[in-house]
Design goal:
Layout: E1 6-7, E2 18-23, E3 26-31, H1 42-53, E4 61-66, H2 85-103, E5 109-113, E6 116-118, H3 120-127, E7 130-134, E8 138-140, H4 143-146, H5 154-162, H6 164-173, E9 177-178, H7 179-184, E10 190-192, H8 197-209, H9 213-228, H10 231-246, H11 249-259
Parallel strand pairs: 3-4, 4-5, 5-7, 6-8, 7-10
Antiparallel strand pairs: 1-2, 2-3, 8-9
Helix pairs in contact: 1-2, 3-5, 5-6, 9-10
Bound molecules: 3-methylmercaptopropionate-CoA (MMPA-CoA).
Length: 269
């Protein structure tokens, strides 16, 4: 972790399966069960949910990463005891609630991925707005091999990133994508050398945190919904969102700053 991050106090500090620290407007939330490869137990899902509905007001972007050699080994298989139908449905719905709290929360989330990003770990990553993978990352959906199905929103979110055909392949054949294949398939927006994921994720989060809050709201809440609408409805929603965004004081200030020559121009990276 970069040295200017300090552990948070209060409710978030009581979440023992997470290590949560903050630097200015960026919160770093680390899955902290390295001995179990950050496998997601019921307790960990609930702590993720609690964290994302209780983000400190000062936070404007979140980075999620995993402690140890892997991002996340997915569902904690030791808890996959025989559940009756209703309990199994409620278990899946508990994951949905937690990952919805993340995806449709107040601020954008950057996932920093390394090592195993499998099963429920890939579902968690898919709920984040930005994904950065280092060269050690690999992606799989071992649910097929375990005789189960995705239950953490993967069937909804992953086809929107990589398409139904690729997800079908991963689930039926047990195929594992390496970092490059994951990048090519659309699972991650950034691929970086081994060990550089966190620095990249934090740098991206700092840029995101500098945006006007309404921009984060529009991109997180309106964009995915517009993508699901018919073109006619989408254009109408876009017009409403565009009007709402441009009528905020932050937007007016930023537009004026550019027109006065006080704001940066667009430059090639
Ligand atoms: C676990 C889990 C887990 C590790 N639940 N305990 N996910 C999977 O099917 C992936 C299963 N895990 C693995 O394939 C491997 O553990 C890894 C490739 C992730 C890492 O390998 P490695 O060699 O670094 O670690 P390891 O020696 O396999 O595991 C270290 C310990 O973590 C060991 O416990 P120990 O008590 O013997 O030390 C493992 O048992 C434990 N561990 N992964 C429980 N997943 C909402 S639906 C979502 C559905 C799914 O996510 S299905 C996919 C489940």
């Amino acid at each position: 972790m970069s040295s200017d991050f300090t552990p948070v106090a209060g409710l978030l500090a009581t979440l023992d399966l997470l290590a949560i620290s903050q630097s200015g407007p960026v919160l770093h939330l680390q899955l902290n069960r390295p001995a179990k490869r950050n496998a997601i137990s019921d307790g960990l899902v609930q702590q993720l949910h609690t964290a994302f509905v209780n983000l400190p007001e000062t936070v404007k972007a979140v980075v999620v990463s995993g402690a140890g050699e892997h991002f996340c080994a997915g569902l904690d298989l030791t808890e996959l005891v025989e559940r009756d139908m209703q309990a199994a449905i409620l278990h899946s719905r508990m994951w949905h609630a937690a990952f919805d709290a993340l995806q449709f929360g107040r601020v954008p989330v950057v996932a920093v991925l390394h090592g195993a990003v499998v099963g429920g770990g890939l579902e968690l990553a898919a709920a984040c707005q930005i994904r950065v993978a280092d060269d050690t990352a690999y992606f799989g959906l071992p649910e097929g091999q375990r005789g189960i199905f995705v239950g953490g929103g993967g069937s909804v979110r992953l086809p929107r990133l990589m398409g139904v055909a690729r997800m079908t392949d991963l689930m039926l054949t047990g195929r594992v994508y390496d970092a490059q294949e994951g990048h090519d398939a659309g699972l991650v927006q950034y691929r970086v050398p081994a060990g550089q994921g966190l620095a990249k994720g934090i740098a991206l989060a700092r840029k995101i945190a500098a945006n006007a809050p309404m921009t984060a709201f529009a991109v997180m809440q309106a964009l995915p919904r517009i993508a699901e609408q018919s073109p006619g409805e989408g254009l109408f929603t876009e017009a409403l969102m565009a009007a709402a965004a441009s009528n905020t004081p932050e937007a007016q200030d930023r537009l004026r700053a550019f027109l006065d020559g006080r704001a940066g121009k667009i430059v090639k990276s």
